Amino acid sequence: MAHRTSPRTDVTRSAILAQLGANGPASRADLARSLSVSPALVTQLTKDLLADGLIAELEQAPSSGGRPARMLGLVASAGRAIGVKVVADHVAFVEVGIDGRVLRSASEPFGAMASTYLTELVDRIRHFLDGGGGAPLLGIGVGVPGSVDQPGSGVVDAPALDWSKVELGDALRRALGLPVIVENNVNALAVAERLFGLGRSHDHFLVVTIGTGIGAGIVVDGAVLRAANGGAGEIGHIPVAEGPRCHCGNDGCLEALIGEAALVARARAEGIISATAGIDALRAAADAGDERASRVFGDAGAVLGRTLAGVVHTIAPAFIVVLGEGTDAWRHWSYGFEPAFRSHLLRHLRGIPVEVETWQDESWAQGAAALVLATPFDADAAGDQARLIRARLVEQAGRS
Question: What is the rounded end-to-end Cα distance, in angstroms, of the chain?
Answer without folding.
Answer: 31
